[in-house]
Write a structure and sequence with these properties.
By secondary structure, this protein is of the alpha/beta class. It has two domains: 3-117 and 355-369, Enolase-like, N-terminal domain (Enolase-like, domain 1, 2-Layer Sandwich); 122-342, Enolase-like C-terminal domain (TIM Barrel). The chain contains 13 helices and 15 strands. It has helices at residues 61-76, 87-90, 98-116, 120-124, 143-156, 171-180, 199-205, 223-231, 245-253, 264-267, 270-282, 296-305, 355-361; strands at 3-21, 24-38, 43-48, 130-132, 135-137, 161-164, 186-189, 213-214, 236-238, 259-262, 287-289, 329-330, 340-342, 352-353, 362-369. Strand 5 (135-137), helix 5 (143-156) and strand 6 (161-164) form a beta-alpha-beta unit. Helix 9 packs parallel to helix 11 (270-282). It is globular and about 60 Å long. The structure holds 2-succinylbenzoate and magnesium ion. Magnesium ion is lined by residues 189, 191, 214-215, 239, 261, 290. Magnesium ion binds next to loops.
């Protein structure tokens, strides 16, 4: 394939409910979409998962926009590319900026699958058409608000509940939740809000039969996570710390985690995500699909990835309606009463991009050509 044009768009999309983590509260998403086109006019869509600010990781929307315009797009445009699996290697000279790379790379996969007339999930080698889903519930203003949220999601059928924690909203919230819902599959995500000195707090969490504790320590750490894992029973799941299949291999080898949250943007796209999945599968380490408050385009890519064999635990991929009044894809992502999403058989990402809606939401755009 040969990419003739890369179109960037920023859309502005308000969340139905604010989402709060240990690193901040989001009410309005700024989302960068990428559309790639080849000489035949075929197109593919990707979404950049960089946030509004450099708080989850170093990447953020304006940084990603700049690095794509100045460096990444010129490395891909006009080049004869064997397949979507080769797109990452073209951008290798740029260090980091994985979410920016993934936005382009995943768009190329959508384009390739559409040209082949196959659904992206099958093209990636997915084996499971129906994927198990959980929800990620942000930090709430009160425990009553948290109970109400959890009740609503359980009623909708979701298979596991993840709550965000931070100092001051942790053991107590978990203990109260566990008391109220003794049998649910429950886990917590700290987004790096603690240090090894907080080991006693994590030992206290051990009593509450959590499925896992996600990213308790620093975003760029593995060593301290290994020390913490040795002191607690509950499996540690790494999110922020795993940026590549090499990271996954090393983290597993030193005992820094027993589960991995896999996010397409964080590892640079589908090619590297498949490698992470393989490293984990070969070592019997379960993976699950993380979320970044994506619009339908990013969500559709997540669904495709989550059909791979190693994705054995419920992910943070949930219905469009939990995030948006109206999504930018048709149909919106829906979840069955069993708490699953069924991957679609239409070519590529399998959902139609609502062009008029995207146009209406666009706050800036750029058209890059070879
Ligand atoms: O750490 O998993 C995370 C959202 C933004 C940034 C980081 C994270 C999250 C979530 C939300 O947990 C998952 C989702 O529902 O999209
Ligand atoms: Mg996380």
């Amino acid at each position: 394939m040969k990419i003739d044009s890369i179109e960037l768009r920023e859309i502005s999309l308000p969340l139905v409910h604010f989402f709060e983590t240990s690193f901040g509260r989001t009410t309005q998403r700024r989302i960068m979409l990428v559309r790639v086109r080849d000489a035949d006019g075929a197109e593919g869509w990707g979404e950049c998962t960089a946030g509004e600010g450099p708080f989850y990781s170093e990447e953020w929307i304006d940084g990603a926009w700049g690095v794509i315009e100045q460096f990444l797009a010129p490395m891909v445009l006009g080049r004869e590319i064997e397949s979507a699996a080769h797109v990452s290697s073209l951008m290798k000279r740029v260090r980091g900026h994985r979410m920016a790379k993934a936005a382009i790379e995943t768009a190329c996969w959508d384009l390739e699958a559409k040209k082949l007339g196959v659904p992206l999930w099958r093209h990636l080698g997915g084996v499971r058409r129906e994927i198990p889903c959980g929800v990620s519930i942000g930090i709430q203003d009160s425990i009553e608000d948290l109970f109400a949220k959890v009740e609503k999601e359980l009623a909708a059928g979701y298979q596991r509940i993840k709550i965000k924690i931070k100092p001051g909203w942790d053991v107590e919230a978990v203990a109260r939740l566990r008391e109220r819902f003794p049998d649910i599959r429950l886990m917590v995500d700290a987004n790096s809000a603690y240090s090894l000195e907080d080991a006693p707090l994590f030992r206290a969490l051990d009593q509450h039969r959590l499925m896992m504790i996600e990213q308790p320590l620093a975003y760029d750490d593995m060593y301290d996570h290994a020390k913490l894992q040795a002191q607690i029973e509950t499996p540690i799941c790494l999110d922020e710390s795993i940026r590549s299949s090499d990271d996954a291999r090393k983290a597993i080898a030193i005992g820094a985690c027993r589960i991995i949250n896999l996010k397409l943007g964080r590892v640079g796209g589908h090619f590297e995500a498949r490698r992470v999945e393989r490293v984990c599968r070969e070592r019997n380490v379960p993976v699950w699909c993380g979320g970044m408050l994506e619009s339908g385009i990013g969500r559709a890519h997540n669904i495709a990835m989550a059909t791979l064999e190693g994705f054995t635990l419920p992910g943070d991929v949930s219905a469009s309606a939990r995030y948006w009044e109206e999504d930018i894809i048709d149909p919106p992502v829906e979840v069955t009463s069993r708490g699953t999403i069924i991957a679609r058989e239409d070519p590529g990402i399998g959902y139609e991009v609502k062009r008029a809606r995207v146009e209406m939401l666009t706050v800036r755009s750029a058209a890059l050509r070879a």
